[in-house]
Amino acid sequence: MKETWTILKVLNWTKGYLTEKGVENARLESEWLLSAALGLDRVGLYVNFDRPLTAPELAGIRTLVARRARREPLQYILGSQEFYGLEFEVAPGVLIPRHDTEVLVREAVNRAGKGAEILDIGVGSGCIAVALATALPDAVVCGVDPSPEALVLAERNAQRHGVSLSLFRGSLFEPFQAREFDLIVSNPPYIPTPDLAGLQPEVRDYEPRGALDGGADGLDFYRLIIPGSLSRLRAGGWLLLEMGIGQAGDLQAMFQATGSFGELFTARDPGGIDRVVGGRRL
Length: 282
Ligand code: GLN
Prior knowledge:
The protein is of the alpha/beta class and 282 residues long. It contains 11 helices and 9 strands.
């Protein structure tokens, strides 16, 4: 006799399979994957638990589940991630927005004056720049990224949220030789190269290396951004940077070594880890 696969049965099977493959929160993720494959929301899934699935529906589910079983991030499969209360399109080639980065946005919003000109270095999916443009409607927000895929996605995310960004392809300050800003923010790559191999497979095998690898000690980009920002920041302007665990001391020393920053501060993420370092151009 041919077996009937209902939604509930497939859900339970998927949960077991993904758990076996090392996926945490396998039950919840299975629900997201089935919802996406069937075009239902989670309530729709629940009220249809007993519905038998057709062969094409099963094939669609199988494709998504196989991707997740290979530890591709759920966000790349679903194509979206929430950040700062906004939904962002994401795709392989850009770093998936992290909630830890919301503290960078909050600190920037608190310091941006009226009509601030803001630069986001390494704009990626556009999550920081779009969140800033949304929270600060009179700001001018520029973004720079070396990756063409990132710029396409950042533009789409800006349009999705009805804000406009000025986006430039290039490395760090390169497109801005003769331009000054009131606020510069960045979430640069900051993982020390030797630590990359130990990251979870979702990050190590799927997220762009160029958005993660901060060089031997993780600080390569800060060595360029902190001194490089001096000629692009107006007096009284702020430089705010996301950082990794244990980097606060070295980064504050780099700010101090320029002799051109005051009001140095650090801010913690919801996990209590120092996540943002910043200072004000004298
Ligand atoms: N927060 C990311 C991670 O821990 C790293 C992002 C970065 O290097 N800027 O995976």
